[in-house]
Amino acid sequence: MMRVLGIILICTAAGGSGMLYAASLNREYEKLLGFIRLIRFIGTRIECFSQPLMTVYADFSDPALDSCGFTGALREDGFTTALCRCRDELCLDDAVFGILSEFGDGLGKSFSDDQVKHCARYADMLSERASELEKTLPGRKKTAVAVSASLAVMAAVILL
User: Alpha-carbon distance 125 to 9, whole Å?
Assistant: First the structure.
């Protein structure tokens, strides 16, 4: 009886870990889209209203970036500091983090026309990454669930 319960527990844990990983892939994609919305919002506010960055940050909200605490940190500390402070919670890959770091480094360091171009360039770069991720996301999620389920079955067979 204990052996059967152990097998059920292992199978549940292995299957659940695959599903959790698939959900984390979705969250990563949603956060990437949130950053694209933020950068476009910044560009629009600079172009149309010539607002200071801290005012722009105060007006922005996005559920994906709110949930990890990034928008709160953004309002307090600015883009680059918030990005570094929330790196672990954002769960972004190194390439996307590098693009965002470069964006933050150039933000607020030129005239408004150049800032608008800066925002457009980085929003386009992140949009390309998002479309690549969107294409591979279903396959990656299926693979994660399939591998964890296979490991669960393998563990069950070994324990029987």
Answer: 44
The Cα 45–Cα 48 span in angstroms is 5
- The two tokens of residue 93 are 């890959």
Tell me the per-residue pLDDT of 19-53, one tens digit each, with 9 for 90 and over.
Answer: 999 999 999 999 999 999 999 999 999 999 999 99
Q: What is the mean pLDDT of residues 145-154?
A: 87
CB 75 within 8 A of CB 97: no
| Whole-angstrom distance, CA of residue 123 vs CA of residue 38 | 9
Both tokens assigned to 13:
């844990």
- pLDDT tens for each residue of 95-112: 999 999 999 999 989 999
Assign 3-state DSSP to the chain and report helix, strand, coil percentages, each to 5.
90, 0, 10
Domain extent listing, the chain? 2-159
